[in-house]
């Protein structure tokens, strides 16, 4: 991987955990995610206008846009469900394990061949993910619904990454991001309204968090948009989808540290060790691919 591409990916990885960390700790994560998606649509629209990019050019590549948008929506619905009840430092690393899914999809669907070292990397990632949620004296599958939501998020972001790596070769970044974010905004809004508590107004469900932490939501929206824009630029410069998403896993140990320092989550030393095992497996995948 070229140094320029690696630098873009590592910068994006350093920014990424801040989004879910700040939204989980905001007191109204659902409203925060919806607000963030809506702001993303506005940013993408503005960027497309300033760059002279046509949003309707996406109609030439409908399959890529559909897979990208559906993958992103699935990812965020999985995140919102997992973060509602799961601890940040446990489930964030699992949800960032998309390269494992991407390797598996390449093998099962695309017929790609992988060496034993790649399969070893996959095994290390899987082991690290399981050990991250282990608690002495408790069942391994203590929160199966939360784990299922995290796995759904992995499938979603892996699908999105494969589609985006191809789409960005034909379309401008704000065009890809506009259609992704428009679809995920609508999906998120419907998801929140379906789960709306009795007696709570629609405005409270969708925008209630703005009253308490408006600047946090705005900050999170801008930095997370920039983070994924860097990833799209890495794809455009020739970064392989699996390799780029492997390198993004530099965010995993950081998420565990933040979970302990900011959210005061427990068992951080052991979780950090397992997150390093998970990250080591993904690095092994990228080295031998």
Plain-language structure description:
With 289 residues, this protein is an all-alpha fold. Helices cover 76% and strands 0% of the residues. The longest helix is centred in the N-terminal third of the chain and has 24 residues. The mean pLDDT is 75.
Concise account of the structure shown:
This protein has about 290 residues and is mostly helical. It has helices at about 5-25, 30-50, 60-85, 90-95, 100-110, 115-130, 145-165, 175-195, 200-205, 215-235, 240-245, 250-260, 270-289.
Keywords:
single chain, 289 residues, mainly alpha, 13 helices
Major sheet size, sense and barrel closure: none
**Tally of extended strands?**
0
Q: List the uncertain runs.
A: none
- What fraction of the residues are assigned to beta strands by DSSP? under 5%
C-alpha Rg, in Å?
A: 18 Å
SSE class: mainly alpha
| Euclidean distance between termini CA atoms | 11 Å
Count the DSSP helices.
13
Element string (H = helix, E = strand): HHHHHHHHHHHHH
Shape verdict: globular
Q: What helical percentage do the residues reach?
A: over 70%
Average pLDDT over all residues = 75
